[in-house]
Design goal:
By secondary structure, the chain is mostly beta strands. It is 13% helix and 38% strand. The protein is globular.
Length: 328
């Protein structure tokens, strides 16, 4: 009954956003405003992705979760909402220095935990990430520098280029620097505590709210100078390679790189998402075919059993799995 699914992006105006999603991926952005986020696959209250293809066009992802839960996710998932949130982010300017609460603190703080992964799709020369703490920074020093406005000095900075990957467990302080476009894979959560926002005004002309007490309770003060994900060699053939990027209790991500036109058969006993980085691809379950261009996404329901991905030379895509869960 289910088939490869595509969705309508949900665009988010952000003070730090730009127009690069239009430039790079042809997204039809609202005119004249800075767009920082495109929520590509979302089951957040008030922000649920609408299906754009096939018999269920016009229905949304939460309707699928309510009516076709097992066919969509497969066995072993007890989530009431789709467990992942998939985004494109355009950081024309740097984001606030921030943290997401870990699972053992989130409920007490009235929020939700959020672990995420960033894939750098585009980067201006000199672009960098703020991730984790400089080695030796103490909580007392961090609090003092919040007070005097120099807390950015406590953050570890990592220069990045397209193709780099960073994993961000909840509790890790972080921010995107200016001049970056990323693919973001994360838990279905929207809880962010801001530590510092560069003394800038929000879209309403007022200073954006900070969340210092919540941040201090959430930050892992033993998290020093994390590194970019090192790509491990994966399965390969004469013209393609599958490289594992992330495997954790919430989601797994691998990168598929093809040097020539290629057809790959994939098993879909569990839900997975395909995110096209570059090139062109056609995804088919034998009945429904979806064509993907860079910056586009496809959800393969568990009930398909298998699907075929046919790609052009130079195609790169991310294959994302929601890991089994017995609780929400």
């Amino acid at each position: 009954m289910l088939y490869p699914l595509t969705f309508q992006p949900i665009f988010k105006e952000r003070v730090w956003g730009g127009r690069n999603l239009e430039r790079l991926y042809g997204k039809q952005l609202p005119p004249g405003v800075p767009i920082g986020e495109s929520w590509e696959i979302s089951d957040r209250p008030g922000d649920v992705s609408v299906i754009t293809n096939g018999p269920f066009a016009g229905r949304d992802l939460h309707w699928l979760m309510e009516n076709h839960h097992r066919a969509l996710l497969g066995e072993g998932h007890a989530h009431q909402r789709f467990p992942l949130l998939i985004k494109l982010l355009d950081a024309e300017e740097k984001l606030s220095l921030q943290v997401h609460p870990p699972a053992d603190k989130a409920a007490l703080l009235g929020g939700e935990p959020k672990t995420e992964m960033w894939f750098i799709a585009d980067a201006r020369p000199g672009a960098e990430l703020f991730v984790g703490l400089k080695r030796g920074v103490t909580r007392a020093e961090f609090e003092q520098k919040i007070a005097d406005g120099s807390v950015a000095d406590c953050f570890h900075r990592v220069a990045v280029k397209p193709g780099d990957v960073m994993f961000l467990p909840s509790g890790r302080v972080h921010a995107l620097g200016a001049g970056l476009v990323i693919f973001e894979i994360q838990q279905n959560s929207d809880t962010t505590y801001r530590v510092f926002d560069w003394n800038r005004k929000g879209l309403d002309g007022k200073a954006r709210e900070l969340h210092i007490p919540q941040s201090l309770q959430s930050i892992d003060f033993e998290d020093f100078e994390p590194s970019l994900i090192r790509r491990e060699s994966g399965s390969s053939g004469s013209s393609s390679e599958v490289r594992p990027l992330v495997q954790n209790p919430l989601f797994s991500v691998e990168e598929w790189v093809s040097d020539s036109a290629k057809s790959l058969s994939v098993r879909t006993g569990k839900a997975q998402i395909l995110a096209l980085l570059q090139g062109q691809a056609r995804v088919s379950d034998g009945k429904t075919e979806v064509s993907l261009a860079p910056g586009q996404f496809c959800l393969l329901p568990a009930s398909l059993g298998s699907a075929t991905i046919a790609s052009t030379a130079g195609t790169r895509l991310l294959r994302i799995h929601a890991v089994e869960s017995t609780s929400q």
